[in-house]
Each structure stands twice: as structure tokens, then as C-alpha cells.
Amino acid sequence: MAELDPQVARLIAGALRAQAPAFPDIGAVAARAHYARAVRILDQPERALHAVHDHALELPQRRLRLRQYVPVEHSWAQPQPALLFFHGGGFTIGSIDTHDRLCRQLAADAGCQVCSLEYRLAPEHRFPAAVDDAFESLHWLLAEAPALGIDPARLAVGGDSAGGTLATATALHARDQGIALRLQLLIYPGLAAHQDSASHRAFARGVLLDAELIQWFFGHYLRSPADREDWRFAPLNAPRLAGVAPVWLALAGHDPLRDEGLAYAERLRAEGVPVDCRVYPGMIHAFFQHAGFVLAARRGPQDAAAALRAALCDTD
Q1: Residues with catalytic function
Q2: Is 0.90 surpassed by the pTM of this model?
């Protein structure tokens, strides 16, 4: 196994020296604020785009925010492809604001629109609230595509970490609803019901996303042990993967979630689903948002944007 990237090792050492409070000790609300501050420090600078719009999704008994990133001016006669994006944060922290810079970069470099959903968070809203929001946001996007200047025939879903879980579940839902997607952009997603793989054991401590923190997130999100077995939480439990959209999958070499990603890629291939699985050696979970500090981390968002462009924009 490759060693930790030296800059990643310095990042971890700096976090330990700072003695930041552990999320389980400060609670979800304070954890959200702390996470937002950390992202601003570690992420790349904000990219300029043609336009950024916030929309309100009026859904049954709730209103959600969705942020639309438009890379270049477009005409209504030539709608643009789009990525429906779900942010990470263990279903408990994170927002469209914490992932604003990443979404800007994907839109700018891929040349497609990005629509980022602010789904409901736990513990205020437990499973399957976030999943329901993700599914309904896809149907909303399809209905509103003409008004947004989006081509409904060129859509992708994607997300990082917990958002990658939501994107995976949404792609399975889309298949079952007869909705054609061009790509799943899955960035170190959670995919398994139980955290008992070799990578979970190897990286249970010392890589920022440790075993205690993972269980804290899931303890807030899940209502009961039975929810762990639901494919909407653990897509590896889905009875069938055949027929879902092609997958681009990014994994970090030093991430507890690495092996469940590898298992998902293996199963996708076995069921005939095209998959491009990339393991980034020396990186840890959430490295896409470390790219302002870790030079090698910049490769991930660049590769993701290239995959989006190839799936949504290239016509050759």
C-alpha cells in the first residue's frame, strides 16, 4: 500500500495539533459550523461562472434549496447538460455552501450545469428523508429542465461521501422509473450496510474519518438497525445493479470506505455496467476538498470533470 502523501500527513498532523473538538462531543449544530470553516481553509479558490442561481423546490410539506451553476451563457434553443449533485457530510453536516467551490469547479471544467441539492439533514430528519429528497429532486429537475435551460437527455447524478450514497440510490431509482441517465459520478461513497471491511479495520483511526465518527453519523441518520440493510442506505444490498447508468468512481487509498467502493465496482462489472474505478494513492476521505492544501488532491476533481465532459458534452 502506498504511503500517505506527505502533504496529507501534514494536514492530519496539523488537525491533531489544533486539538479541534470531536464532533461527537459538540453535537451536530456546532459540527456543521466547524466543518464549514475547515472546508473554507482547505478547498481551492472559488471559480467564476456565467451565473449561479438559487431555487426553491416546493415539495410536499417541505421546501428545499437547489443551487444551479451555469458555466457559460446558453440559448434556450441549445439547452445544456447537467449534473444533479448531492453534498457529503455523513447525512448530518454539510450543505450546498460547503460544496460550492467544488460544484463551481466541476461546472467550469466539465462545461455542464451543476445543480446542487440542500437535502434534509439528520438528526432532525432521519432516514429515509435525505433519500426521498434526492429522488424527488430528480423528478423536479426533469420537470423544470426547459425553464432551467437543461437538456433532460443529458443528465448525470453524483455526489461525495454520503452524497455519493444518495447519488447511487438515485441512479437505481432512475433505472426503475425508466429515467435514462448518462453517468453516475460517485466520489468515495458509502455503499455497505456494515463497516467491517479490511479498509475499515486498517483505517479505524488516524485518518480524520475514523470509526467513531462514522458510527456517530449513522447513529444520527438511521432509525433502527433494520435501516442498515435497506439498499437506499447500503446500495451493495440492492438485489440487482444491471441496467443502471455507467459509473465513474473515485476512491481514496487511505479511506475506510475504500473497500466497499471496490466491491461495488466489482459487482457492477459482473452485472454488465460500465465502470471506471480510480483509486488515488496517498489520499484520505474528502480529499476533493483538500485541493487548496494538497497538490496531489487536485487530480481528483480534474478527472471527475473530464469524466463528466466525456459523458455529457463530447459528441464524437
Answers
A1: 161, 255, 285
A2: yes
